Amino acid sequence: MTKQRKVILEELHKVTSHPTADMVYEMVRKRLPHISLGTVYRNLEDLADQGEIRKLSIDGTRMRFDGNPEEHTHIRCIVCGRVDDIHFAPTVSMQDSISDNGYKILGHKLEFYGKCSECRKKDEIMKAKEKKRKSKD
Amino acid sequence: MTKQRKVILEELHKVTSHPTADMVYEMVRKRLPHISLGTVYRNLEDLADQGEIRKLSIDGTRMRFDGNPEEHTHIRCIVCGRVDDIHFAPTVSMQDSISDNGYKILGHKLEFYGKCSECRKKDEIMKAKEKKRKSKD
DNA sequence: ATATTAAATAATAATGATTACTATTACTGA
DNA sequence: TCAGTAATAGTAATCATTATTATTTAATAT
User: Which residue of A has its CA nearest to B62?
Assistant: First the structure.
């Protein structure tokens, strides 16, 4: 556990925003200005391998990281891309309900998507403006 | 609907392997040897926007594409990376069970992971070899 | 304390997936 | 036929990630 790794883990524990590697780099750089991006990547990888954090592949081309290694569910805004944790208790064990397909099932990833309250608010504002504009014609 | 787009869609409908853009390119190239990779990317994007196909972000850094646009569940092998469709019927509407978080929920992505039968078979073979080797000592 | 070894780092280069750009080609309607 | 539009092929640029390498740090033995 080097100084760098320690700070990376600490910073990741501070937030619930599921940052990308680059975001983690910026966060950590405030405390360790000389840390290199490669070090951030390597430590995030190692921490994920050890089960201390989680790697999430939810927005396509870039990885996101979650300081909470517990299996839990995410919700992503399709407009702004933010990712939040949600509490979701499956009524039956989902994994038990799919057995006879040859796979040995080890876990699952569940992600809901929709519009977050902020983006919905912005939609309202846009609609109001639109209405105003039209009434002027 | 250009010739290129038509062939891309047809080839994607032929398989259940959830190919990457590059794999689609190779598949399509057999029929249209002069198609460019950029055209494949653009059409996959457009087809996904129109809801004809689905973009999947399940293996981290690269996108995969699914000729079946219906909401359904995937299972991925953590060893070889293959992705299969599975039939999964949630007992209650999962989306209804998470409401009061400010999000307007539009859908979900569910992915199970585990080991596919082929990789498990390989494991067995490896174990058998290991045993044999040890008994020789 | 000092030398020795291994591991981790910073800085940089290389890779791989995706996107952007541009000249050319194919289509469409007058 | 011809002008105008849209899509394409080919290529360059970008962005995220991984690999490389010399240097630094930490740990261990002398």
Answer: A61
